[in-house]
Each structure stands twice: as structure tokens, then as C-alpha cells.
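Quick one:
INPUT:
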């Protein structure tokens, strides 16, 4: 009788462990792959997290920006692996109509020197955190989010090429529709530029 009870408990424990591993496997599948990455970032028209951080020169940068439009690039020293993205950022930086900040996931000292070597010395580099990345729902890099002066997301996407930066800039210029605004307001927000 005791042996049967011990056997029953043993089988129950094995089944519980198998169920936990099964749930973890399903969760891993849901969080990986192209479909999961498409859900990263914040939807257009949603409020972006507010923050103020000092850049590598000690200048305090804030989001939402005081200027019309801000591009937040979630990246670090790995940006060197994306020369086309760097070219797109360089081009946008030369236009001068968008404030560009690069938000690292942690300390920015290593990334700052490399970003300067890539010709992006005029771009502010900020030390972010895993918590800030989480508030923006960003898991992969490089990721770009345009935020307007009202604090609303105007465009958001993973970027691998310069044309994607240019396309996001174009999308950011499109006025927000009522169904894109929090609460579905019927007002139309004018273009940020």
C-alpha cells in the first residue's frame, strides 16, 4: 500500500514537471521568431514613456522632445554590424530636422567611441537600462522609434537598412488618425514636421 502511494506521488511529480517544461516551451516559441519581433516596440499613436537622461557630454535629453520630432535608436556597439543603418542615421542627422538619440541598454562608454568612429559624433548617446527597453517593449537591436513633441509614437520598427530609417521618417510625418490615438479620440493630430 505504501509502495503504491509512493509510486503514485512519483508519477504525479513527473507529470507536473513535464507540464511545466511544456508551458515553458510554448512560451519560448511565442517569444521567438519573426512574428514575435513584429509585436516589439510601441504602436503608432500610443504614448511613449517619459524620461530625462544625461548624454555622454552631460547634456540632459528628454522624451518627449521639445523639438518637433525625436528618433530614439535602441542600439549599442553592435551598430557597427549595420553599416546601412549607420548611413541612414548619418543622412537623417545631416538634415537636422529630427533630434536623434541612441539609447544603449546599459553603460554607454564603449558604444560612444564606436558611434563617433562611425561618423555619428553629433548624435547624443544615452545610457539606458533594461527597464527603459522594457517600457518601450524593445528586445532586439537596432530598433527605432519616432516620438513627437506631444509624447506620441509616430513610427516604430526594427531597422536593418537605411531605407527603413527613411521610410519610418515618412510614416512619422503622416498625421495620426482617430483610431490610432489612445481612447480613439475623434480629433486629428497634425503632422509633427
Amino acid at each position: 500500500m505504501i509502495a503504491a502511494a509512493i509510486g503514485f506521488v512519483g508519477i504525479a511529480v513527473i507529470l507536473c514537471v513535464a507540464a511545466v517544461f511544456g508551458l515553458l516551451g510554448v512560451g519560448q516559441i511565442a517569444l521567438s521568431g519573426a512574428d514575435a519581433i513584429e509585436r516589439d516596440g510601441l504602436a503608432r499613436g500610443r504614448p511613449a514613456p517619459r524620461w530625462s537622461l544625461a548624454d555622454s557630454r552631460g547634456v540632459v535629453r528628454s522624451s518627449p522632445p521639445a523639438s518637433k520630432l525625436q528618433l530614439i535608436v535602441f542600439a549599442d556597439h553592435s551598430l557597427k554590424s549595420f553599416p546601412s543603418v549607420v548611413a541612414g542615421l548619418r543622412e537623417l542627422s545631416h538634415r537636422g530636422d529630427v533630434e536623434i538619440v541612441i539609447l544603449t541598454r546599459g553603460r554607454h562608454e564603449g558604444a560612444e567611441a564606436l558611434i563617433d568612429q562611425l561618423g555619428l559624433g553629433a548624435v547624443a548617446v544615452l545610457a539606458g537600462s533594461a527597464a527603459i527597453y522594457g517600457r518601450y517593449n524593445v528586445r532586439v537591436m537596432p530598433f527605432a522609434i519616432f516620438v513627437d513633441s506631444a509624447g506620441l509614437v509616430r513610427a516604430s520598427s526594427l531597422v536593418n537598412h537605411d531605407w527603413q530609417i527613411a521610410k519610418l521618417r515618412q510614416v512619422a510625418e503622416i498625421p495620426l488618425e482617430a483610431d490610432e490615438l489612445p481612447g480613439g479620440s475623434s480629433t486629428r493630430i497634425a503632422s509633427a514636421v
